[in-house]
Every structure is written in C-alpha cells, then in structure tokens.
Write a structure and sequence with these properties.
The protein is mainly β. The protein is built from five helices and 16 strands. 31% of the residues are buried.
C-alpha cells in the first residue's frame, strides 16, 4: 500500500501540491436472496453474504476544469455460513478523468459508476453482487438531455486454464420532458484458451427502447414505463451453428414513500441458446431469458431510504411459460460512505428530499 501511495504522489505531481487531496470511500452491500425455483434454467438456492469495497487514493483539479482521481482498493465478498477461505477478493484499481460532462475510467472500475444499471438480460443480479467491477474501460457523457455509456469488460485472459472473453456494451437515453428514447447494444465474445479448449462463440444483442417517466407529475416518488425490441444473434463457430432471436421487453416501475412495485415482461424467442453449454462464461444475463414468456413482479418495502443507505425487503413472483410460478425473497442493504459525507453538509429540508432517492440498486433503476 505504501508503494501505491508513492506512485499516486508521483503521477499526480503535475498538479499543485496544495490542490492534491487524499480520497477514500467504502461501499457495503448485504444481499439475502432466497430462490424457490420451479423451472430448469437455474437451481433453487439461497445466496446470502456481504460485500465490502474500500478504496483510497489521491485526486486533484487541473487548471482547465478537469478532475483527476487515482484509486485502489478491493472488493471482499464473504458468504454467510462459509469459512473465510471461501471468500473472494477482487481488485479495484482505476484512474478517472472528469470534465464538462465527460467521465473516462480506466482499470478495474465499479459497475456502479454507470449512469443506470444494466438490464437483467445483460447482467444478472447474482453476478452483479459477486463481480462488481468492469475490467477495462468505461467512457461516459451526460447532460440535461440524457447520457451515453460505453464499456469494455475484459473478463477472461487467454491462458492454459482460462478462455479469452470480453464484451463491449453501449447504452444511452435521450430525454425530452417526460419522454425518453434510447437503447443498448452488446458485442460479446468467448474464445479458446491456450491449452486444449478450442472454439469461438459470438453473442450480439440490440435493444432499442422508448419510455416515459411521470413521477414528477404525480404524488408518487417514481413512476416509469418503458418498452422495446430485443434482438440477438448467437453463433458457435466450432459447431457451425447460429441462432437469431427476437422478443419484446417491457418494464414498469413505481415507488411511493416506503413501498414499491416493479414488473418486467419478456415475450419472444430464447435469448440464450448457448447457455446450457457455456453458462456464464458466455452469457452474463439472467438465465430466465431462455423462456418464451418470462414475467417478474417485485413487491418491495423500503426499510431505510436515504442518499447514502438503502435497505429493502422484497417478494418476487416469477412466471415462466410452461413452468408456472416461482418465488424469490430478498433483503438487501446498501451503504456508501461518500454520499454520507455529502449528506452531512445538507440542510434539514435537503435531507428530507433524499428520502425519495437512495443508493442505486436493481429495483431503483428509474430513481
């Protein structure tokens, strides 16, 4: 750690000494996820654990209005009921430059930096908890009209034991009053390793969408509806097989004070035809998108809802065509130190307003 701080000082020495700041943050998540499953796409199981992600570093503002940060830390994931040897520790090391709406992030970058959480068909909630960082780059631009996010996640280096794997995702929305339009696109690639495993798989997805956000026009804290087309192309080059899939996806979300509801509907073809053979090595999304019809209804209650901490309990009803209902119970708590430091500087009226926000979680996409 001393070596890291020395490097930070040398790299950031281009700024004036009195402008340099020592930075730190801590992110905490407790995730209880009990899945009572009645379909073949995933097993019944309980995911229960905590994730602690501390980072430290240095930062400064340059003479033309840019902000520079160099940060390092870890994400420590510990399942309940397991020994400490069963934990996983992954690095968080990144450089960030921000200026005039642009954010450029390089390294092991938290997915939480994204403007909005990725849709479930790109990133399942279980992988989001266990693997919190982008391994590569995240470019962003935002303004009052909307945003654009572009990332490259290099999740597999070619070696004797590991297959080369990466994906590039672009997403964004253009907003006008209560209406918005945008979408997502993904290029996902799984190659062979340096040993005995051969073959290359491709996974291309596009999802144009439109939506409305009406919370500010109602007594509700949030009210949003969006819908779009999901089209994908998957290919297993070694098997010389390819698949095209088409579907309709709709998402409805509302929240008021301490209660919330989200309903997600997918109707169409199997979006992950290679999941049975490759699993999460290729497809990082929710495996339930293999079903022809998939509907998920989340009913949740906020236990705490502030800008720096959010805790909620939820009951999710999952319907998959041909398999009836499954159930999922969740209790999630998320705390971030940096928003807390900002919260302490607010007036009493401004603090009350944070009850309508909260730390970004899956069910708070439309906050």
């Amino acid at each position: 750690m001393r070596k890291f701080l020395l490097i930070c000082v040398l790299v950031l020495g281009v700024g004036s000494a009195d402008a340099q700041k020592f930075l730190y943050d801590v992110d905490f998540v407790m995730n209880f996820d009990n899945r009572e499953i009645n379909h073949p796409y995933e097993p019944s199981r309980t995911l229960f654990g905590v994730r602690l992600s501390p980072v430290i570093g240095l930062g400064f503002n340059d003479s033309i209005g840019g902000t520079h940060r160099l940060m390092a830390g870890i994400s420590y994931v510990q399942p309940f009921g397991a020994k400490w040897r069963d934990c996983t520790v992954t690095p968080t090391v990144y450089y960030q430059f921000a200026a005039k709406g642009f954010h450029l992030n390089f390294g092991f970058v938290p997915y939480d930096f994204m403007t909005e959480a990725l849709p479930d068909y790109f990133r399942s909630d279980s992988l989001a908890f266990a693997y919190p960082n982008i391994q590569g780059v995240l470019f962003q631009y935002g303004s009052k009209w909307g945003y654009i996010d572009l990332l490259c996640d290099w999740r597999g280096m070619m070696s004797a034991d590991t297959r080369e794997a990466f994906r590039i995702i672009a997403g964004g929305k253009f907003r006008y009053n209560w209406l918005y339009a945008g979408g997502y696109a993904q290029l996902n690639h799984l190659s062979h390793n340096a040993g005995t495993i051969l073959g290359v798989c491709d996974d291309i997805v596009i999802n144009p969408l439109v939506g409305v956000s009406l919370g500010h026009l109602t007594p509700l804290d949030s009210l949003a509806l969006q819908a779009g087309y999901v089209g994908s192309f998957q290919r297993d080059r070694r098997a010389e097989k390819q698949w095209f899939a088409h579907g309709f996806h709709a998402d409805f979300y509302l929240s008021w004070r301490f209660i919330g509801l989200r309903n997600e509907l997918y109707v169409g073809d199997n979006q992950m035809p290679l999941y049975a053979g490759y699993g999460t090595l290729l497809n990082q999304g929710d495996p339930r998108y293999q079903a022809r019809i998939f509907n998920r209804t989340d009913i949740f209650f906020f236990l705490i809802r502030r800008s720096f901490v959010t805790a909620y309990a939820g009951w999710n009803l999952l319907y998959l065509d041909g398999y009836g209902l499954s159930h999922q119970q969740q209790v999630v708590c998320r705390f971030s130190l940096e928003p807390l430091l900002q919260y302490t500087k607010l007036t009493k009226q401004e603090r009350l307003a944070t009850r309508k926000s909260g730390v970004k979680l899956r069910t708070l996409t439309y906050r």
